[in-house]
């Protein structure tokens, strides 16, 4: 039997040319488009290997496979702890619920912490992921020539080989190891947990044990798990995290509460209660001064949990923004326009990503999204689109450009945008007349770029840049087409945090911000230092008159900070218990921004601006000093020579099962294995009862070509007896044997993104 066409088929990407090289503890696999990412990843992996294995006193038995892929505009990391492999998508994570940290040193440490901690907690090693207890029952069958009726009951109960709740698995992966700082408790994590605490919405101990939540629920499992894991390490000792994993490896231990009691001396519920009490006391005390003089403006869009990137209409009293209203998950954002005079709203387009931008005539809006269908290879990349209010039609402007965050430049009718390649991001310009794009920057250390914005007064671009921890604000001069021109803005001394006079420019090679201070009359020299490494500055917005407003977390809480270069006045203009982001300034000076409050991002309006004394804002003016002593970023590239990739297989997984089927006990097993980069997979099973009834099946998928070739076979036997009388006199005892054999082969072909 042959079959063609399936409803859901993955793309195999045979166009990718895979290579590999080995380090002391890892096998690194990459395709040509991720080589720089792979070489940085190899350095990171070897650096953190002894720290994590030392913390857990455990090493994987074989070299861990580290796979770097980039077939789509997608960012994630995944640890396959039974396969002993890690898969990293090269594109860096840019997520409104996470702080900004250099991607590879963060995600590789996180995923390898998963590998080691979860292998430490395994009950039966890496070859037996679990077992199954199963029951099948059938409808009653009255015909004598039919064995049994149609199945009406099927129960399959898995017994997992690893029992670690999500909060603990993700919590220890974010904790990483003692004194690790590649990821740490930054202002975003603090904002989400603080907001839940002061609004009485902290997750229960049971809720922390599951994913699948709407809105910010899944991220709250990460956050709460990180906080609780850190609480355990601080209160009971870092080694207790390892000991809990050892306790969970016991074949008879399936309760996290009981495991914590055996290790910590306190039941998990009691530890959780102490943790919650400490959070509520701490956060209510910290925000009480803020609540005396809060400044947040008027919330004008509150439906949904994601209302971000407000952009004023250039001529009308209205604005565009992204929202997930009427959708379930945080990232399911659509593009809306809201008229503030009529209070009417229209949905312009669905599935839009990153900030939109207006044409200066207000009749066209530009935005980024993925196309409805993938390209010929099955890849889905972000591209720039336009929407005309006059024709109500959409036009695609780029194709496979990996373009996001467009910014319209009216002076020369172009669109600046950001794009990603091999984990690095740069600035591009699209000429709307020729429809040709040009790469404008070449940041060799591959920092993370985001939130591009245009300053009409200086004919320049501002953007957020992350080279290590947090964001700084970069500057690109469109006249000279260089990163590195001087831009006046307030400068903060890295030691004291105080504002000083000076200029800022950016290293043309790395894109890192450099501050040039005023001339020192005593030494006759000028001092240089990098932009402040201990707090985050992001989301610059500039008015036509040059007034700058951006978000800053120097006080421990993100608030909007304003700088007026004309009269040199500067200061905070919001004072929040949540956080303020993504400001946009109207011609009349009003400010829209995205306010995080009560578990959601809303759009808020500041009708008028008043400076707030620094002492009243956030936790304290010097709170940023807690963010010090970080490890240096890992930038070195591994130089090992690569060779062509050869198929490799991890262990064959065996999963025992016991089934009660038509009144007989039928023990058996499943087996499964998949090639390391998923080029082929085998899956099968066998079971046998005391009647010598066999159930056998085998499935093979071959994924080296565009279509997936498959082969399936099934073999079932049933043995029964039948008693009858010949001519009504002689007893006849018949042994009846049933045999069912099926062979099936075919191709699974993806069509239009199926």
Report on the structure:
- This protein has 754 residues and is of the alpha+beta class.
- It folds into three domains: 17-128 and 162-288, Neutral Protease Domain 2 (Neutral Protease, domain 2); 129-160 and 652-754, no CATH class; 290-626, Neuraminidase, CATH 2.120.10.30.
- The strands form ten sheets. The protein has a nine-stranded mixed sheet, with no helix packed on it. A six-stranded mixed sheet has the order 5-6-4-3-2-39, with helices on one face. Strands 9-38-37-36 form a four-stranded antiparallel sheet, with no helix packed on it.
- β27 and β28 (499-500) form a beta hairpin.
- The chain is globular.
- It starts with a strand and ends in a 6-residue tail after the last strand.
- The model is unreliable at 1-7, 485-491, 500-506 and 508-530 (pLDDT under 50).
- This is Biopolymer transporter Tol.
């Amino acid at each position: 039997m042959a079959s063609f066409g399936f409803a859901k088929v993955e793309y195999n990407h045979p166009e990718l040319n895979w290579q590999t090289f080995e380090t002391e503890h890892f096998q690194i696999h990459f395709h040509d488009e991720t080589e720089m990412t792979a070489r940085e990843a190899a350095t990171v992996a070897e650096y953190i290997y002894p720290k994590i294995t030392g913390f857990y006193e455990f090493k994987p038995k074989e070299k861990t496979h580290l796979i770097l892929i980039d077939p789509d505009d997608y960012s994630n990391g995944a640890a396959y702890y039974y396969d002993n492999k890690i898969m990293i998508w090269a594109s860096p994570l840019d997520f409104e619920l996470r702080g900004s940290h250099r991607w590879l040193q963060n995600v590789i440490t996180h995923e390898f912490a998963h590998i080691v901690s979860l292998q430490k907690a395994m009950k039966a090693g890496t070859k037996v992921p679990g077992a199954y207890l199963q029951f099948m029952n059938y409808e009653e069958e009255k015909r004598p020539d039919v064995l049994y009726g149609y199945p009406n009951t099927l129960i399959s109960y898995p017994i997992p080989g690893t029992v670690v709740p999500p909060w603990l698995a993700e919590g220890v992966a974010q904790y990483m190891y003692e004194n690790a700082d590649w990821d740490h408790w930054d202002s975003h994590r603090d904002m989400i947990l603080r907001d839940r605490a002061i609004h009485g919405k902290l997750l229960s101990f049971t809720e922390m044990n599951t994913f699948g939540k709407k809105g910010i629920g899944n991220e709250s499992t990460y956050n709460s798990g990180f906080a609780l894991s850190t609480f355990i390490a601080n209160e009971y000792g870092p080694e207790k995290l390892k000991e809990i994993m050892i306790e969970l490896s016991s074949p008879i231990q399936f309760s996290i509460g009981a495991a914590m009691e055996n290790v910590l001396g306190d039941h998990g519920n009691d530890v959780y209660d102490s943790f919650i009490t400490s959070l509520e006391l701490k956060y209510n005390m910290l925000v009480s001064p803020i609540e005396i003089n809060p400044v947040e403006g008027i919330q004008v869009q509150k439906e949904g949990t994601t209302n971000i990137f407000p952009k004023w209409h250039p001529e009308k009293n209205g604005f565009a923004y992204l929202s997930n209203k009427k959708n379930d998950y945080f990232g399911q954002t659509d593009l809306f326009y809201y008229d503030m005079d009529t209070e009417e709203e229209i949905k312009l387009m669905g599935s839009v990503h990153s900030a939109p931008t207006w044409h200066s005539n207000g009749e066209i809006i530009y935005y980024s999204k993925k196309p409805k269908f993938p390209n010929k290879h099955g890849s889905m990349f972000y591209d720039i689109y336009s929407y005309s209010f006059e024709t109500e039609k959409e036009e695609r402007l780029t194709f496979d450009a990996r373009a996001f965050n467009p910014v319209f430049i009216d002076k020369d009718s172009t669109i600046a945008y950001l794009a990603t390649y091999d984990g690095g991001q740069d600035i591009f310009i699209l000429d709307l007349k020729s429809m040709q794009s040009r790469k404008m920057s070449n940041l060799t250390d591959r920092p993370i770029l985001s939130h591009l914005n245009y300053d009409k007064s200086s004919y320049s671009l501002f953007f957020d840049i992350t080279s290590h921890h947090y964001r700084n604000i970069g500057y690109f001069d469109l006249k000279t087409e260089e990163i590195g021109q001087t831009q006046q803005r307030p400068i903060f001394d890295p030691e004291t945090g105080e504002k000083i006079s000076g200029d800022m420019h950016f290293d043309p090679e790395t894109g890192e911000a450099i501050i040039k201070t005023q001339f020192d009359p005593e030494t006759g020299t000028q001092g240089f230092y990098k932009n402040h490494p201990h707090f985050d500055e992001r989301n610059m917005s500039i008015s036509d008159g040059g007034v700058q407003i951006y978000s800053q977390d120097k006080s421990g809480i993100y608030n909007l900070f304003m700088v007026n270069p004309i009269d040199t006045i500067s200061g905070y203009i919001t004072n929040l218990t949540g956080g303020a982001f993504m400001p946009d300034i109207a011609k009349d000076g009003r400010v829209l921004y995205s306010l995080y409050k009560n578990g959601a991002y809303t759009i808020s309006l500041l009708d008028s601006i008043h400076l707030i004394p620094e002492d009243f804002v956030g936790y304290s003016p010097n709170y940023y000093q807690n963010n010090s002593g970080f490890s240096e970023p890992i930038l070195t590239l591994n130089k090992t020579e690569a060779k062509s990739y050869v198929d490799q297989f991890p262990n064959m997984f065996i999963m025992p099962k016991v089934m009660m089927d038509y009144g007989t006990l039928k023990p058996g097993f499943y087996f499964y294995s998949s090639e390391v980069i998923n080029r082929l997979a085998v899956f099968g099973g066998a079971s046998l009862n005391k009647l010598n009834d066999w159930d056998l099946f085998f499935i093979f998928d071959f994924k080296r070509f565009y279509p997936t070739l498959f082969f399936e076979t099934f073999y079932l036997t049933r043995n029964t007896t039948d008693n009858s009388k010949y001519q009504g006199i002689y007893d006849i005892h018949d042994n009846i044997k049933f045999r069912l054999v099926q062979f099936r082969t075919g191709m699974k072909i993806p069509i239009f993104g199926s």
